[in-house]
Design brief:
single chain, alpha/beta, 2-enoyl-CoA Hydratase, Chain A, domain 1
């Protein structure tokens, strides 16, 4: 028995704006069934690939290559989410696509993170959540995508960028990769599925270390703990990923997808607790305790290319509660 997600007006307006920004004209509803993946259902009128400026898709040898190109900051925002929904729908329908690979057009950022200024403007919402929030639902659709998904990263991906990567089936990293979940220092928590996806990748204790510590995880450590599959030299990364993706694409798709479903049935025997994550996130937003640390984050150079590529440790440090003593060196 299917039931429609009830989205609040704020979320619905954000999604409609996002899909329009991605070049779509949509009639949208979101459906959910206990035994089926979350999916967005809409009519799209999309005639050329140029109508997907954020997530362009091309198909080569059975592999769908999704190039994320979202200047100037590569934020995980409404435009990205709308384009992601559209490209997932397109790739799922396309029988020539057997594997989906996500890469970035930005040499510094796979994805930066969510829009901190936008989060600061989020309104008070006293109602308890009864369904996953929009970002959780979209990233859960990524996780449940029937065809294998791969992230190819050789740059920074924090916050929502890390959550998106964590929803993919595999992640291969170049040596310049930097991952992290800096939300707790900002006064919130990962609210796009990160508390659920990351713990399944690296285990509870490591997830707590990453999320509560708020610091960066570099490529070699990320591979050692399972945050990424492995590290490959930058010059060889694309060739490595292409070879693996094309190899998988050459096998019978029914067998590939059946194996993925069987593995997920064990790993995800207990469904992700998105509603708990959403309610905890909403309570923090309602308390408004995130405003001051997020403003300190922005004042220190957060959400800028220079700041987040050269001095993120200092920016994170700037978010400390000024009433708390700093730890001894």
């Amino acid at each position: 028995m299917k039931s429609a997600f009830r989205m609040n007006n704020f979320d619905l307006l954000r999604l409609l704006a996002a899909t329009q920004a991605a070049g779509c004209r949509t009639h949208l509803r979101c459906e959910h069934a206990a035994d089926a993946p979350v999916r967005f259902v809409y009519r799209e009128r999309m005639t050329v690939e140029a109508s997907l400026p954020v997530c362009g898709l091309r198909v080569e040898r059975g592999v769908g290559w999704v190039r994320i190109d979202h200047p100037p900051k590569h934020l995980v925002d409404g435009a990205f989410m709308g384009a992601l929904v559209a490209v997932l729908d397109r790739a799922e329908r396309d029988t020539a696509v057997h594997v989906l690979v996500f890469e970035s057009a930005d040499p510094d950022f796979f994805m930066m993170h969510g829009d901190v200024e936008g989060i600061m403007r989020m309104p008070h919402n006293p109602d308890p959540a009864t369904e996953p929030n929009l970002a959780e639902a979209i990233f859960e659709r990524v996780r449940r995508f029937p065809k294998p998904t791969i992230g190819m990263i050789d740059g920074h991906a924090r916050g929502g960028g890390s959550e998106f990567l964590s929803a993919l089936d595999m992640r291969f990293a170049g040596p310049r990769t930097v991952l992290g979940q800096p939300e707790v220092p900002m006064g919130i928590l990962p609210g796009a599925g990160g508390t659920q996806f990351l713990a399944r990748l690296v285990g509870r204790a490591r997830a707590l270390e990453i999320i509560l510590g708020g610091g960066d995880v570099y490529a070699d450590e990320a591979a050692a703990i399972g945050y990424v599959n492995r590290v490959v030299p930058s010059a060889e990364l694309r060739s490595f990923v292409a070879t693996l993706a094309e190899r998988i694409a050459a096998w019978p798709p029914e067998a590939v997808q059946a194996a993925k479903r069987a593995i997920d049935a064990g790993i995800y025997a207990a469904e992700p607790q998105f509603i708990t994550e959403t309610n905890e996130f909403r309570s923090l937003i309602n308390a408004r305790g995130h405003i001051a640390p997020m403003q300190r984050f922005l004042d220190a150079g957060g959400q800028t290319r220079e700041g987040e590529t050269t001095r993120m440790d200092a920016i994170i440090d700037a978010m400390r509660n000024p009433d708390m003593a700093r730890p001894a060196d």
